[in-house]
Amino acid sequence: ATGSTPLGLYAELAKLCAEGKLSFAKCTTFNLDEYIGLDGTHDQSYRYFMNKNLFEKVDIRMEATHVPSGAVKSDEEAEQYDAEIKAAGGIDLQLLGIGNNGHIGFNEPDDHFSKGTHCVDLTESTIQANSRLFDSIDDVPRQAYTMGTQTIMYARMILVVANGEAKAQAVHDMCYGPVTPECPASILQLHTNCVVVADEAALSLCE
Ligand code: F6R
Fold it and tell me: Residue ranges of the alpha helices (H) in 103-160?
């Protein structure tokens, strides 16, 4: 996952790696999502984010890191992503953040759960939330590629991280609400090995 929430975790992983307590030399990674229309050198692309915040700070082999390519819109290429994950043996640990509206990856509230990696139109709520990182809201891409909900559910273990009051409703609905595509994260209630790590503000509606 990219976003603000895992930044502390990535900094900690980089620190442990620098201290020789951890190695990524044998790791393969697959990121969840990427904006369409930004290439990997754009400072708001998720490839750039991952390079700067984790990959360049640890001993991972760059060729073992995968981020859906958003530079050119190619739905065929996006569909290939699931085949690449499968060929790599599937995902052992999927790290997730959660959107204010309950999205995971860029799987937005909808009337059905998504399956494989696909193109999505971002909701106004997500465009608004992500505009803090762009010069203006008009610069925020309107589409993205994201792993589907099914792709995420195939992971053997899922770790969700959340912090801050803005996430309280989404965290509550993820854990205790009905399992519904209106809160995509609620499907995680059906996963057999999912752990949520959140601060008190994000847990404030979970009594
Ligand atoms: C990003 C991603 C998103 C974020 C979510 C929370 O790769 O998958 O689902 O995890 O939007 O973002 P932050 O952590 O910035 O609040």
Answer: 124-130, 149-153
